[in-house]
Design a protein that fits this description.
The chain has about 170 residues and is mainly α. It is built from 9 helices and no strands.
């Protein structure tokens, strides 16, 4: 749910709660206040990170960037959502060719430690790419080894890791 829709719904719940509270008392309105509070907490703790990640996977970088921009404070997000936030932001920075910012954000995502294994592999693969571009071939090779451990047995991420390893071998 987009932030504007959440805010409208929160406002409606609070307004209806206030009307009921004034007419019939708190016993009739408390659940509306609670629902508004839950919506606020859900945005503070989870944000739109899942939607931003999904948009990025579909190739819609503009939408992903906009959704991440709706997160008020990334540090308030739950660890899993915070890790995914920094992963998504890091990948967006790399798409913008901002290697240093992308590296910093991807490292932050890994520091949080709450990413699923495949997301760790994606972060490590992209960090290896940054190191390859910067000429740090040994560091890139170690990162690719780590990425392969997290990637599992099959899938497109493992294929990309093998492609990166082949490029590293050709250029090394």
């Amino acid at each position: 749910m987009r932030l504007i829709h959440k805010l409208i719904l929160i406002g409606l719940l609070l307004a209806l709660g206030l009307v009921l509270h004034l007419q019939q008392g708190l016993a009739s309105a408390w659940y509306l206040y609670a629902a508004a509070l839950l919506l606020v907490l859900s945005h503070l703790l989870m944000g739109n990170v899942g939607q931003a990640w999904s948009a990025l996977q579909k190739g819609d970088q503009a939408r992903a960037r906009k959704l991440l921009g709706e997160v008020w404070q990334p540090e308030w997000l739950l660890p899993a959502h915070r890790g995914r936030y920094y992963l998504t932001a890091g990948l967006l920075a790399l798409h913008q060719k901002d290697l240093e910012e992308g590296r910093r954000l991807l490292e932050r995502a890994l520091e949080i430690g709450a990413l699923p294994e495949l997301d760790k592999a994606v972060a490590l693969l992209n960090l290896a790419h940054v190191q390859m571009v910067q000429g740090q071939k040994e560091v890139a090779a170690r990162l690719l080894d780590d990425a392969e451990r997290h990637a599992g047995k099959t899938g497109p991420v493992l294929h990309q890791i093998r492609k990166a390893r082949a490029m590293l071998s050709q250029n090394g």
